[in-house]
Amino acid sequence: MAITVIHCADLHFDSPFSGLDSAHKAEIRREELRQVFGRITNLARTENADALIISGDLFDSSSVSSQTLRYIKEKLSQISDIPVFIAAGNHDFNAPGSFYRLFDFGKNVHIFSDEIEKIECKGFNVYGVSFAAQEETDSKLKDFCVDDTEQINIMAIHADIDGAYNPITKQEIQESGLDYLALGHIHMFSYKMQFGKTCAVYPGCPEGRGFDELGPKGVVKAIIDKNNVDVEFVPLSKRIYHEISVDVSGAESYETLCGRILLAMKGSPDDLYKIVLVGEAEFYIQPAVILESLHCFSAKIVDKTKAKLDLKELSEEYSLKGLFVNELLNQDKECENELLKQALSYGLEALSGEKVKLP
Ligand SMILES: [Mn+2]
């Protein structure tokens, strides 16, 4: 018999989204994060899941809005026939005063304590353990082994394999006797990781929250039986974060430049973009002018361009820069020597009072 599990982690509800350019967009994103949870419970319903597992960092911090709590409870009550298991992580550790102890999430929801517990379901066992503090420096999987190897055994845990937060080891996973280890903590989908007979997966976060969480985000649908685990990544995020690099060299107008950027922006205008401009700028580029013509939900320009230098004009300047350029051009009229080019570029940066960035 195979069971279907929807496995998610790291929602980080009520994140500040401070990287956005306005407070109202941050609030839009917090609402979208809530709605993504609705997509997850919907998926559990349509897939007829045997369990929904949330492997920690459901909340970003110990302060949670009542609006968010009510929303979660409403969504969980809509799948009241599906058991839900929560193992708290380092951001939402389960300690006295935590919302995990103060709020009633519903009859179908089990929140694990900081000692490994086993819950018996129809045809499978779910183990789990929560963080009790922000830091758990010892592995919570140490010396663990399932007690019934005939049964399908899964575990929900927030952990960092060979890392710092609940540092479980590959050896411990291999010796656990588990069929499926539902991990949380790493915000990127790990694909299926196999340690002996145990399949372990990080689903990543279901919604990106910044440019360190690029690309499609979602949850995992795992079909588990005693001999095999089928892992499918299900993208669910409302928006996607992209980082693109655009060479501005030779673009003599904003129109040309924006054309290049729009061509490089392959996602939807509802997405979020970090646009890194590189190359030699023909004119002084003002990000506000570009942003105005992109018409997307959010974009941020990082200008790494270098001003195109007119060496002849500079060499005629009556200034320290002029003398410097003249001195170097006397050594190589066409300035073709690579070392000379670098000396020129760094020297001019230094003379302009800029920080010189050596490669
Ligand atoms: Mn996290």
The CATH homologous superfamily of the largest domain? Metallo-dependent phosphatases
Tell me the series of helices and strands, N- to C-terminal.
EHEHEHEEEEHEEEEEEHEEHEEHHH
Helix content: 25-40%
User: Count the strands?
Assistant: 17
Catalogue the unreliable spans.
none
The termini sit apart by: 58 Å
Q: Name the bound molecules.
A: manganese (II) ion
Could you give a short account of the major beta sheet?
Answer: 6 strands, mixed
Shape type? elongated
Radius of gyration: 27 Å
Number of helices: 9
The helix-and-strand class reads: alpha/beta
Average predicted local confidence, pLDDT: 93
- Which CATH class of the largest domain? Alpha Beta
Provide a quick synopsis of the model.
The chain has 359 residues and is α/β, with parallel strands linked by helices.
Please characterize this protein's 3D structure.
This protein has 359 residues and is of the alpha/beta class. It has three domains: 3-235, Metallo-dependent phosphatases (Purple Acid Phosphatase, chain A, domain 2, 4-Layer Sandwich), CATH 3.60.21; 241-307; 312-351, no CATH class. The chain has helices spanning 23-46, 66-77, 99-102, 170-175, 254-264, 287-294, 311-315, 320-331, 338-351; strands at 3-8, 51-54, 84-86, 109-111, 117-121, 124-128, 152-158, 180-184, 193-195, 198-201, 218-224, 229-235, 241-247, 272-278, 280-281, 298-303, 306-307. The strands form four sheets. It has a six-stranded mixed sheet, covered by helices on one side. Strands 5-6-7-8-10-9 form a six-stranded mixed sheet. A three-stranded parallel sheet has the order 13-14-16, covered by helices on one side. Helix 8 (320-331) runs antiparallel to helix 9. The termini are far apart. The structure holds manganese (II) ion. Manganese (II) ion (MN) binds at residues 10, 12, 57, 89, 91, 185.
